[in-house]
Design a protein that fits this description.
The complex is a heterodimer of chains A (459) and B (300).
Chain A lengths: L1 H15 L14 H4 L14 E7 L4 H14 L3 E7 L3 H13 L6 E5 L3 H6 L3 E2 L1 H5 L10 H6 L10 E6 L1 E6 H6 L14 H13 L7 E3 L3 H10 L6 H5 L12 H15 L3 E3 L3 H9 L5 E5 L3 H11 L3 E3 L16 E8 L4 H15 L1 H11 L6 H9 L2 H4 L1 H11 L5 H4 L6 H16 L4 H22 L3
Helix pairs in contact in A: 16-17, 21-22
Chain B lengths: L2 H4 L7 H30 L1 E5 L2 E4 L3 H8 L1 H34 L4 H13 L2 H12 L5 H10 L9 H29 L3 H9 L4 H12 L1 H18 L1 H7 L11 H11 L3 H29 L6
Helix pairs in contact in B: 2-14, 4-5, 4-8, 4-11, 5-8, 6-12, 8-11, 11-14, 13-14
Classes of the chains: A alpha/beta (459), B mainly alpha (300).
């Protein structure tokens, strides 16, 4: 019995060990008062300091290399980059570090954490820190518009921003007798995708034609392509959202199309990211919807696998105009509790990272979008887009999107849990449940989360 | 002589004994009891960001009672535990018996059946995923090709639960077999010889003779494996199904983790943790009382 009791206690302990309550670390810092604006951009702190940056995505080595270059030019600042797990793990880790009064100077959080982090006063708005040094006119609208509060203050420095991107296997399209040029490839509407899938399976002998991870973000992107907001109150931007709009006809069109593609064996339900990418590279599917952040890896992988890789379109219903994609990925935040030389160093490094040269390099080596238009020009001048035109095509789709309620994307607490409910709905759909039942239950599940989320939202 | 002086005196003073006990007591207090009390405290609070707590009393417990998802998760956990513990013990008993009976290569058989237990659960889950993957798995491919059976556990919740249970049974058997084989080895050969002279069949010998004799070990394994199933299925679920499809494999431990570390509902997760602890503790008491009645510890 003692063994059982002790083991059971450990179960509880495992959780609470991570939940120690000590209050948010440090006094709140008024960043604009703490920093001397005149010194901003000199790449120096008032004393020698080493700062930590917690990254949530891959490319840790690349960012460390960039940070070392920055440190080489600075007499006082060095930056230590570490990959601290997934976005969720970094968000949780940051909270624990703040309770222990030891937050990193910079943390990389997901877009969906922007609201809880800022409303929970976990972070210092980036605009207060480096706003005077930023050229906000140079920001890509889609990026700049996401991470701002009601006063248009930038909350975090957009970094590793991505969208859903469509990759296709040019050789497979050729074998199926389809148009292969990216401007005219038949991948614009649901009708196109179905007809293209038929050709790929019947003419090119593919077991299945298309795949993407069955995850909520992709379906929110489908909604924005349909011009359909996901949540009420302007996608939760004018006021906390209280209801999802999953009963809209535009949403039904998405799921009906996906269901028929699945039942016809055209859509490969590959579950997670890794399986979908493997299916594309192993030529089990000829079209892949993925994060643009993985473009470089898919392009190189296709080279190795011996087929040509191109970027197509994320589809919309044939009776609608394709509106545009929501953004995903993350942003760099400076936590509350960072002060003095550390705060100066964090601000200097963020400002340096926001410069077009750094944004261009990050874009070229990863596929994540740059936040600045000038960076795109640098990439173009470098001749990179001639070698990898698919990068430009993907970025173009984000740049060209109209700024509407739908493309702004949902802004709410508990966005992660909402996406889990979308994933569960998909499980039911692919498990053979009736489409309307799935949509109804999914709406009530998401609305139940929204009820709690809107209560927590201080806006 | 007083009762006190009857006892074996190792330390001349209680102060010395207390001092020696102190490190252990401190360790237990800091790493076991303090976090447990903290968890109970957190369960009465709403916490959206760590450090910002609002007292809400029993709201989380009420929400748990009212939540059909939580009740479902509870049911799945009990089913998972009952099936994995029963099947794993039964199979382990049979395999151990066969190893006990065999004359040659005993150690080779023993090592080969214990081997899966030596694998970390995460590695076992990745291996199983390779074997059982709905589209790419070797085992599922063979099932589909030769028997025409589609083992689509990525979309069928019941099959997903079966896949995870198979994993837990396969991985857990090694531990049972170590103990049962050792216990069978302790049985005096005279008993076996007498049974054989009386013409008792093998299976009868196992269930009528050996099982009662090794019952204390079986009780121990039932208790340990039950606790293990409640707390230990996490890695398999996390790596193989992530609780899906449609929450079909969302056992309590995984549900708790999701609510704490994915959904940032630390208070609600703490309440789930407290309930899980209480449930397992009560179940252990009942289990020990019931099984004690049937276990044979020697003597008259």
């Amino acid at each position: 019995m003692q063994t059982a009791g002790v083991t059971a206690t450990i179960g509880a302990t495992a959780l609470s060990g991570c939940l120690s309550r000590l209050g948010l670390g440090g006094e709140e810092t008024n960043a604009s008062e703490a920093l001397d604006e005149e010194d901003l951009g000199d790449m120096e702190a008032s004393e020698e300091v080493e700062i930590d940056l917690w990254l949530s995505v891959g490319a840790e080595d690349l960012l460390q290399e960039m940070a070392d270059e920055f440190a080489g030019e600075s007499d006082t600042i060095s930056v230590n980059v570490s990959q601290e797990g997934s976005y969720n793990e970094v968000f949780n880790g940051l909270q624990q570090a703040q309770t222990a009064d030891e937050p990193p100077e910079i943390a990389h959080l997901n877009a969906v954490h922007t609201l809880p982090a800022s409303a929970g006063e976990m972070i210092v708005p980036a605009g207060d820190l480096i706003g005077s040094g930023l050229d906000s006119d140079d920001f890509v609208d889609a990026v700049g518009n996401y991470y701002v509060n009601d006063d248009d203050t930038l909350l975090g420095l957009p970094f590793a921003v991505s969208t859903v991107t469509c990759s296709y296997n040019v050789d497979a399209f050729e074998a199926a007798g389809l148009e292969t040029e990216s401007d005219s490839v038949p991948l614009e509407t649901y009708e196109d995708w179905t007809a293209t899938s038929t050709a790929l399976v019947e003419e090119a002998g593919f077991p299945q034609a298309v795949t993407w991870p069955a995850l909520g973000w992709f379906y929110e992107s489908f909604m924005s392509m349909q011009g359909q907001a996901f949540l009420n109150n302007d996608n939760g931007r004018s006021a906390p959202a209280t209801e999802s709009l999953l009963d809209a006809e535009a949403v039904r069109e998405i799921y009906a199309w996906n269901q028929s593609m699945y039942e016809d064996d055209y859509y490969l339900n590959s579950g997670g990211w890794g399986d979908a990418r493997q299916a594309f590279l192993n030529e089990e599917a000829a079209v892949l919807l993925d994060s643009s952040s993985n473009l470089r890896s898919m392009s190189d992988g296709a080279d190795e696998a011996g087929f040509e890789h191109e970027v197509g379109m994320v589809p919309h219903h044939q009776n609608r105009d394709g509106e545009g994609l929501i953004i995903g990925g993350g942003s760099l935040f400076v936590p509350q509790g960072i002060e003095g030389a550390s705060l100066e160093a964090a601000a200097e490094f963020l400002l340096w990272l926001s410069e077009p040269e750094q944004q261009a390099r990050w874009h070229m080596e990863t596929g994540y979008y740059p936040s600045s238009l000038e960076a795109e020009q640098i990439v173009a001048d470098d001749g990179f887009y001639e070698e990898y035109p698919q990068f430009q095509r993907a970025f173009q789709q984000l740049k060209d999107r109209p700024e509407t309620v739908a493309t702004a994307g949902a802004f709410t607490f508990d966005h992660g849990e909402i996406r889990t409910e979308l994933d569960n709905g998909l499980d039911r759909l692919f498990g053979g449940n009736d489409l309307d039942d799935v949509l109804t239950s999914m709406k009530s599940d998401v609305d139940a989360v929204l009820e709690r989320a809107s209560e927590a939202d201080p806006r | 002589m007083s009762e006190h002086t009857d006892r074996l005196q190792i330390f001349s003073s209680t102060r010395e004994a207390a001092l020696l006990l102190l490190p252990t007591m401190l360790f237990i207090l800091v790493f076991l009891y303090y976090p447990f009390v903290e968890t109970v405290f957190l369960s009465f609070h709403r916490i959206r960001i760590l450090g910002n707590e609002t007292w809400i009393g029993l709201d989380h417990y009420v929400r748990m009672l009212e939540s059909s998802d939580y009740r479902y998760s509870f049911g799945v956990t009990i089913l998972f535990t009952a099936v994995t513990v029963t099947v794993s013990l039964l199979l382990s008993l049979l395999i151990s018996f066969l190893i006990h009976e065999v004359d040659r290569y005993k150690n080779l058989y023993l090592v080969s059946v214990i081997w899966p237990y030596a694998l970390p659960l995460a590695v076992a889950a990745v291996l199983l995923d390779f074997l059982l993957h709905p589209q790419l798995g070797v085992f599922t491919w063979a099932l589909d090709t030769y028997l025409g059976i589609e083992f689509a556990w990525d979309t069928d919740g019941r099959l997903a639960l079966v896949a995870v249970m198979l994993g837990a049974i396969w991985q857990g058997m090694g531990y049972n077999i170590i103990f049962i084989t050792a216990a069978l080895g302790q049985i005096p050969s005279a008993i076996t010889d007498a049974a054989e002279l009386d013409g008792i069949g093998r299976l009868q010998r196992l269930f009528r003779l050996y099982v009662p004799l090794i019952s204390p070990i079986l009780v121990f394994l039932i208790v340990v494996q039950t606790v293990g199933a409640f707390f230990g299925g996490f890695a398999l679920v996390d790596l193989m199904t992530s609780g899906g499809p449609n929450n079909a494999t969302n056992i309590l431990m995984f549900n708790l983790y999701q609510d704490a570390f994915r959904n940032q509902q630390f208070g609600y997760a703490a309440a789930q943790s407290v309930v899980l602890f209480a449930f397992v503790a009560v179940m252990m008491v009942i289990q020990l009382k019931v099984t004690d009645r049937y276990a044979y510890y020697g003597g008259a």
